[in-house]
Structure formats: C-alpha cells, structure tokens
Amino acid sequence: MTPEGLILGAIAVPLGGAALIAAAHRMPDLREGVTLVAAAALFLLVASLAPEVLAGGRPGVHVAEVMPGIALAFRVEPLGMLFALVASGLWIVNSLYSIGYMRGNNEQHQTRYYVCFAAALASTMGIAFAGNLFTLFLFYEALTLVTYPLVTHHGTEEARRAGRLYLALLVGSSIVFLLIAIVWTWQVAGTIDFVRGGILSGKVSNTTMGILLALYVFGIGKAAVMPVHRWLPAAMVAPVPVSALLHAVAVVKAGAFAVVKVVVYVFGVETISGMTSVDWLPFVAGFTIIAASIVALRSDNLKRRLAYSTVSQLSYIVLAAALLTPLSIIGAALHIATHALGKITLFFAAGAIYTAAHKTEVSQLAGIGRRMPWTMGAFAIGSLSMIGLPPAAGFVSKWYILSGAMATGQWGAVAVLVAGTLLSAGYLLPIVYRAFFLSPAASHGHHEEHGEAPLTMVIAVSVSALGTVALFFFPEALLALSRQLAGVG
After folding, report:
1. Which domain does 407 fall in, by range?
2. pLDDT for 77-131, tens place per residue?
3. Is 193 helix (H, G, I), strand (E, B) or coil?
4. Count of beta carbons in the 10 Å neighbourhood of residue 148
5. Does residue 356 belong to any structural domain of this protein?
6. Between β-strands 70-75 and 60-67, what pairing exists: parallel, antiparallel or unpaired?
7. CA–CA separation, 202 and 416 (whole Å)
8. What's 442's DSSP letter?
C-alpha cells in the first residue's frame, strides 16, 4: 500500500470499525471481535508508515481544497508519527481491557461505547497526521464531539453536568481562542501549513507573538493548562476505560501534542527563543504542575487523584516545549508516550480495583495488594513512571526535560521539576505502601474477600506495565522520532 493509502486508511479503518460495531450490536462477541481487529489493523497501518518517516520521509496527501489557501490535507512528520503509534497501540490494549470492564460491571449502552471509542481513534489519527491548522482544528473538534457520549455514558445528572462542562470548556476555548488564533495566523502569515521552523518569523511583532501564543495555549483546552482544566476531573464520572481514553490514548494527548506542534511548526523554536513576550508560558506551566499536584495530594478519591496527576503531568510537556531547547523538545515528545503508558496503567489498575473490590477511595486500599498482586504491582510500575524513576519510561522523558532546563540555566524550571517529582512521589507512593504493607484492619477493620479483576483486565494492565518498563530499556524508535522533531537527528 502507498503511503497516501496508509494515511487515509488510518482514518478509514476506525470509522469502518465503528460502522461494523454498530451493525453487530446484537452479537456482543462479534462486536468486541470487530473492535480488536480494527484496533490491530489500525496499528499495523500506522506502524507501516514509521520506517519512511524514520528515514527522513514526510509522506502526505491532499484531500480537498475547501477554499483558496485552505485545504483538508495530511502530512506525517515525526511528532505525529510518535503520537499515532502511541494512540493506535494503546487502543488494542484498551479494547482488551474494556471487554472485561464493561462486562464485569454490567455497563449499559456497550455498543455505543465501542462505536464512540472507534470514532475517537479516527479523530485522533486525523489530528496526528494533520498537515495544517485547518485540518487539525477540524479533527480536534470532532474528537470533542465523539467523546461527549462517553463522558455522559452513565446518563446520571452528575454525568450530564460533567458533559455540559466538558463541551463548554473544550468547544468554548477552541472557538473563542483557538479559532481566532488560526484565522489571525492565516491573515499575517498567508498560510496555515505546518512548516519546519515556523511560519511567523518576521511576520509579527514581539508583542503579537506573545498574544498569539496565549490564544493557542489556552485555546487548546485539551492540554488542561490552568485555568482551562476543570473539564478533566469532572469527566472522571465516566467509566474507567473512558478515563483511560481521556488521559492516555487520545484526548489530553491531542492537547499536549497540539501545543508542541504549534510551538515547533507554527512559531518555530528558534524564532521565539529569546522573545520576552513568551516568557510567561514556563510560569503558567510550572504553576499548573505544582498546583495540580497539591490537589492530587489532598484527594482521597483515587480517580480524582489520578485526574489531577494528569493535569500536572501534561504541563510537563507544555513546560518542556516552553523551554525552547532541543533537549527539552525531545523530552516533550517522549513524555507524550511515557505518560500515556504510565497513566493508562494507573487507570487500568483503578478500574480493576473497582471491578473486583468496589473500592474507590485511597483510604480503602490497605492490604489490597495481597489480594490483587498483579494489579497493584502494575500500579507500582505506573507510579514509578509518573514520578520519573527507573526502570520506568517516565525517567527517560523527564531526564531530557531536566537536562534541557539545566543546559540553559533555567533554574526556576529545574526547581519546578524537582518539586513536581517530590509531590508525585507524595501522592502515589503512599498508595503502593498502603496496598502492600498495611493490613486491611489498619483502615477499615473489614475487607471483603476477592481476587483479581477479570482476566482480560489483568492482561491489559500487565501489558501496559510491561510496556512502561520496555520503553525505558528500548526507547530507540521513539527517541529517533523525537530527535528528528528537535532537529538533532
């Protein structure tokens, strides 16, 4: 298959999968089989593009010209390749997990769930392979709309309220800020294509550059930079596999990806380096890292703690992009992948705990590691990755971010990274300690007898945990893509 066919196929396969899933709604085994086949097919299509991109190729396809100068077009560059590999690979694992979770908890509307999940992956591929800001915006909005039914899946008043907040913040921020930024960019640059080195050099003043950057950063609400973050913890009312989609596979990663892509391909790292009008971004990202970590530290509800952990960890990516050094850009790209693997592991574990033991609070988890050793062992690995400790993949990305900050003497960023690491340890390691080293009587005096969650869930959480360790030892492919993005490889 030609590269152009692979690109279009990566969008068509999940859409076709969604249609077949809907058609198989009366046959659950077939429906879930279609989901797994579609996920595997998508990953194979995406992986088939990787050798050409690693070799320096930039395959693309022009689909249609909407109006003069604005086209629906796709182009695969290193950052998009990395994002697509991560999202498509994790769809396989999440689909396997979803089978156990949705059946184990007797969830309603399972067909709708799988259909929307597949449509979300199609939107994600469109974002990853977008060749210009118009295409990115189109699929960015589509991702918001197709994930709304997932957020409101349970149909309760709380779910509907969360859904309204989800739409209001994500659609509102993209219309009020992001769309204005795109139109303004088109007006001053004469193009909205993604170009190596940026398209704004010499086109706008220092002040205008800072204003445009603010419109992009706060307009990309999926990046959850404070104060545009409240949709994320609110959306935790959704089923756990949806939380995994929001936090690891697609939604927040689409936001972090878009911020890095705009910095590299619209502004240009060299263009804005030294510009005083963009100096505010490291402070905003640093504040988000620390403030969200403190909220996580004080949260007893496990999903809420993990949600605010995501808010914090996403801003590591934003901070890395804001440091504007080759090493930090490498770290930003790698952290998209390492955070995805680590965080999906943590959410898988949280869902397994809920399914097997019906526990939702950290204070209820004393001794649970003795009954769920596979689940809590995986949780421990995911925690190490979030903290940034070996042998978990998060160490690799955080090392590059820290090295980028230290190499240029940005000691405020170094302090934030150190403080964020300590806070991450503070809200994650006590969970591991409580699970393995406290007896059930230490917290509640009664602990229901139970074992692990359904087998497919245990397999999924084990695979994601192993992937987190494997990426620590074998980061070469993703590191090569990240180095290409930063212009150093």
Report:
1. 279-489
2. 999 999 999 999 999 999 999 898 888 788 788 899 999 999 999 999 999 999 9
3. strand
4. 18
5. yes
6. antiparallel
7. 33
8. G
